[in-house]
Amino acid sequence: MIALATRGSALARVQAELALAALRYAFPEEEFTTVVVDSDGDLSPAAVAPDQPGEGWFTSRLERSLRTGQVDGAVHSAKDLPTQISEDLVIAAFLPRADPRDALVTAGDTQLADLPQGARIGTSSPRRAAQLLALRPDLAVVPIRGNVDTRVGKVRRGEFSGCLLAMAGLLRLGRGLEGQALDPENECTPAPAQGAIALQARAGTRLAEMAAHIDDSRTRRCIEAERLVLTQMGGGCQLPLGALATPLAPAWARLTVAWAPEMGEPVRRITGEASLTGLSGLAIELAGQLR
Q1: Is 237 in the active site?
Q2: How far apart are alpha carbons 279 and 45 in whole angstroms?
Q3: Catalytic site includes residue 128
Q4: One of 128, 154, 220, 227 is an active-site residue; which one?
Q5: How many C-beta atoms surround the C-beta of residue 123 within 10 A?
Q6: What domain range includes position 78?
Q7: Is 79 a catalytic residue?
Q8: Is 151 a catalytic residue?
Q9: How many CA atoms lie within 13 A of 280 on its CB side?
């Protein structure tokens, strides 16, 4: 029996099931199961904003269960992984990426341009807040807590005029029609690795070898480039940085990076194109232009 750790939220369980389905298809003779592990972010929700990636709030306890042998692997939202991963663990596979864009959920499906002046929009992400205010400086951006259902519920009850979420999460929960996707190249560039599912394993283990059979190479190239931008810019969950690599052809991609160091100021957004094998070099180049 091969066990995968997952957080207990509805979205995390769906993502774990997607990883299990891929493994079961590749290895029908094996038995797989999941083990729910509460993350620091789940145990202390008031201490961390749900939209802030990259600092281990939602991954460290799962990684600990992996290191101690309680489980064989761990399933993560790739954007939650810290920028630096210890050498004893590997990201053994990235599943094919879902829609990486940010989505605006509003009461009555009101468009961004039609929201009333001063409308309260919920997000705890500095990246989303900065890019939103660059588009609509009159809006009131307010921190929001909770999982997808909780945050959408607050909009439906009128506590907020809208909230910003990942479109991939809405789609995986069957709620894609509730979100209005924002243009990643002109409105809101998503967080590095947003929309991707990562399967982590101990280095050199059988699961690590098995996971190579379900790894999506184009997704890996794109995510690694986006995470490299984050590393080059200093990393950290408070960094108002967006990065998205979009495949254009089997071996070519466009990389868009957005940097908004000051709330309400114009967003610095730059784009370049490169082969998938050259994306890492482009990531370093674009980050250098923004620093």
Answers
A1: yes
A2: 36
A3: yes
A4: 128
A5: 25
A6: 1-96+196-215
A7: yes
A8: yes
A9: 5
